[in-house]
Design goal:
The complex is a heterodimer. Chain A is mainly α. Chain A is built from 20 helices and no strands. Chain A has two domains: 205 residues; 168 residues, Fumarate Reductase Iron-sulfur Protein, Chain B, domain 2. In chain A, helix 5 packs antiparallel against helix 6 and helix 10 packs antiparallel against helix 12. Chain B is α/β, with parallel strands linked by helices. Chain B folds into two domains: 118 residues, Rossmann fold, CATH 3.40.50; 126 residues, Rossmann fold, CATH 3.40.50. Classes of the chains: A mainly alpha, B alpha/beta. At the A-B interface, helix 11, helix 14, helix 18, helix 19 and helix 20 of A face helix 2, helix 3, helix 4, helix 5 and helix 6 of B. Bound molecules: iron/sulfur cluster (2 copies). The site of one iron/sulfur cluster (SF4) has 15 residues of chain A, from helix 14, helix 18 and helix 19.
Chain lengths: 440, 262
């Protein structure tokens, strides 16, 4: 390959690498804006969960058809990208099919596997496009799925198809050139899938084919660089990486357990004259519960970046099913969008800047929060183990404890608990009357 | 027949302590319908000579609805008060027929100093069955009758208890039918998260109606519940559908009492 091409390639690769680096540091910084929470325990159990859920995609298989198609895209995508190592090295070193001589007769086998996977990726992506745009599978719609999220999903599918087609075309032309005995297009043995395309190219001249083969090569490699940057910049497709991190840090305790706010424990103990242990995490928190993204924990924020926008949660949500405004997917997407906004504000105006907006109110309404039954159907459904309930409860805590705002019936329930030790207005002295019937 | 319902305080006065405390819960103490569940469970405990006691008037709301509504202060006040009482008596083991009490006592009390072995009554009933203390009543009144079990969120997804209640129903020798959404995908009755204590938000249907319709579709004449709130929501749903003469909602304990003729 021409030295100039090598230089251009190295420059492009560096730009792409820098772009990804910048995106990752932005996301990392944003996530760390959240409150601290210890998830450093139980490493073995966490790794197991990650392998089962992210690598093994256990939850996905509750819906077999999308699961199998998704598995092809995922496996295909991961493995075909191994080929990217060769392509990138070829680009840097100015070689062509660098690995062929080393792998010998194994090389065509490997490439054939890649080609098979590329074909399955194309098929799966086409089916996915049909499900989204023609069949209109219900969970892909909803208020939160308006413009950008739907476009994002379609763009990603389109890009994957184009990349795989370029890969197959490149191989097909390579083989026609091999048959012609052209220059450095050394014989590799047959690539079965792309050879089906050979017929299209056999009538072209050698010089045109070399040009076209190189064009596909460049399209493929630049496409992949663009794709990677796109994914990290602002896309639900980030889940291909985040799924691993998020399942590793997922909650290990029973889904029904809500955390006990330690700052409240301390005050309650003081009120009840109980001994208070001094802990390192002392000092009153800025507020009780969460009003904005920075009041949530880093794990909540990590969740928001991991969301695939698949809608499995919302599809199972009893509130959403019965026409309430609440959609757990929207809770996650709102959290992420607000976090991106807060991150941008900090970058532009400094840490103390207040844009007068907040997650609660400007993004998520009280009506949505109040509709949740904490049934955990969303948590159970989520393939990447996201926990929307945690965010919902923290926002509710702010409403109740900081703003003292609750529906009137909740206020009476609360005052009954306070005065009568039961959520209904009964005298505590009558609590044991049920047994009267039994005492003959 | 006269039944024995000792309180922990009475036992203590006699220098005794119970093996297990039956945590009745607010619904089990005050709600007319749910009180029958409490009574049914006490009958079973008596029948099997279980060394149990209740806290009577010393019991107080676990704080679950306050916590889920978002008032953590009130939850922890309740929790600390209850823990003082339970620890004061040196209680080791608790059984309750309410999945909300169960979840709170089991998962949320330990960090606040309340460490007990907590089980749901479906688990205790299953244990009795495994031990052969409760036996299958072949040809009993439930034989061949269709029964569908509604999973409580706070037993199922919240605490992974799906099998115990079904095992309990098996001894009825009935025809167990599942709803389309069951076990991990079971649909909530609509009461959790303190919804029990407020009107639903605006929507096009109430959750309990959606769930009741699904239960009715199975053709079951009995809807089995294992939670006082589910029981209330589903009974209301059945009434709303004007099916209360054909379809009954019962708790597991009530079904056992009926089948064993206790
Ligand atoms: S926990 Fe709340 S948000 Fe999640 S599915 Fe249940 S009602 Fe919907
Ligand atoms: S929270 Fe989970 S289930 Fe819901 S849309 Fe996001 S990835 Fe899908």
């Amino acid at each position: 390959m021409h030295v100039l091409a090598q230089i251009v390639f190295i420059i492009l690769l560096s730009i792409a690498g820098a772009g990804i680096y910048l995106s990752i540091s932005r996301i990392r910084k944003n996530i760390l804006l959240g409150r601290d929470e210890d998830r450093s325990d139980n490493k073995i159990a966490r790794i197991k969960k990650m392998l089962l859920m992210a690598l093994g995609q256990k939850k996905m298989f509750k819906k077999p058809l999308p699961a199998i198609l998704h598995f092809f895209v995922y496996a295909g995508f991961l493995i075909v990208n191994v080929e990217m190592i060769e392509i990138a090295l070829d680009g840097i070193l100015g070689t062509h099919r660098l690995f062929a001589p080393y792998l010998g007769s194994l090389y065509p086998v490997v490439i054939n596997v890649f080609e098979f996977l590329a074909l399955t990726v194309i098929i799966a992506c086409v089916v996915f496009l049909i499900r989204r745009n023609i069949v209109h599978v219900k969970r892909f719609s909803g208020v939160e799925m308006a413009k950008w999220p739907s476009l994002d999903a379609n763009l990603i599918l389109g890009m994957e198809i184009l990349l795989m087609i370029a890969f197959l075309k490149m191989n097909a032309m390579d083989q026609v050139l091999q048959d012609m005995g052209s220059g450095h297009y050394t014989a590799t043995g047959p690539f079965y899938i792309s050879s089906a395309l050979k017929g299209f190219y056999s009538s072209y001249s050698e010089s045109f084919l070399i040009f076209a083969e190189r064009a596909c090569w460049w399209f493929h490699i630049i496409g992949v660089m663009f794709f990677a940057n796109y994914v990290f910049y602002n896309s639900k497709h980030l889940h291909i990486f985040m799924a691993f991190i998020n399942t590793y840090y997922a909650k290990l305790t029973p889904a029904g357990k809500l955390n006990n706010m330690p700052e409240v424990t301390k005050e309650v103990k003081l009120m009840l004259n109980l001994p208070v242990e001094e802990t390192a995490a002392d000092g009153a928190p800025a507020r009780f519960g969460a009003k904005d993204v920075r009041d949530l924990t880093w794990k909540n924020l990590l969740d928001s970046y991991s969301c695939t926008e698949c809608g499995r949660c919302t599809q199972q949500c009893p509130a959403n099913i019965t026409g309430k405004k609440l959609s757990p997917r929207k809770i996650m997407m709102d959290t992420r969008d607000r976090l991106e906004e807060v991150g941008k504000n900090i970058k532009q105006h400094g840490d103390a800047y207040d844009d007068g907006k907040s997650l609660l109110g400007d993004y998520i309404s009280e009506e949505e929060l109040l509709a949740c039954t904490t049934c955990n159907a969303c948590v159970e459904a989520c393939p990447v183990m996201i926990d929307p309930v945690s965010i919902i409860v923290q926002l509710r805590r702010f409403k109740l404890m900081e703003e003292s705002q609750a529906p009137a019936s909740w206020n009476s329930m609360l005052s009954n608990i306070e005065n009568n030790m039961a959520p209904w207005k009964f005298s505590p002295a009558d609590r044991f009357n049920w047994a009267d019937k039994l005492k003959g | 027949m006269e039944y024995n319902v000792p309180t922990v305080a009475e036992l203590k006065a006699q220098g005794k302590s119970p093996e297990i405390v039956f945590w009745v819960g607010c619904a089990g103490s005050f709600d007319e319908r749910v009180k029958s569940v409490t009574v049914a469970f006490v009958k079973i405990l008596n029948h099997l000579n279980v060394n149990f006691a209740v806290l009577g008037t010393e019991e107080a709301c676990t704080g679950d609805p306050a916590k889920r509504a978002g008032n953590e202060f009130m939850f922890q006040m309740q929790a600390m008060t209850n823990i003082e009482v339970l620890n004061g008596y040196g209680i080791q083991k608790i059984v309750t027929a309410c999945p909300h009490c169960f979840n709170t006592l089991k998962n949320e009390y330990p960090e606040l100093g309340g460490k007990y072995e907590v089980i749901h009554h479906s688990q205790l009933l299953q244990q009795f069955i495994d031990e052969g203390k409760i036996k299958m009543t072949e040809g009993g009144e439930f034989k061949g009758k269709k029964i569908t079990y509604h999973d409580s969120c706070y037993l199922g997804r919240a605490n992974n208890i799906y099998e115990a209640p079904r095992k309990v129903l098996e001894v009825l020798d009935a025809d167990l039918v599942e709803m389309k959404r069951c076990k991990t995908t079971g649909l909530c009755c609509g009461a959790g998260g303190a919804q029990m204590f407020k009107e639903p938000e605006k929507g096009n249907k109430d959750i309990n109606i959606e769930r009741t319709e699904e239960a009715l579709q199975t053709g079951a004449k009995i809807i089995a519940a294992a939670c006082p709130f589910c029981m209330t929501m589903l009974s209301d749903g059945v009434k709303n559908k004007e099916q209360e003469h054909n379809v009954k909602v019962y708790d597991l304990a009530e079904l056992i009492v009926q089948s064993q003729r206790l």
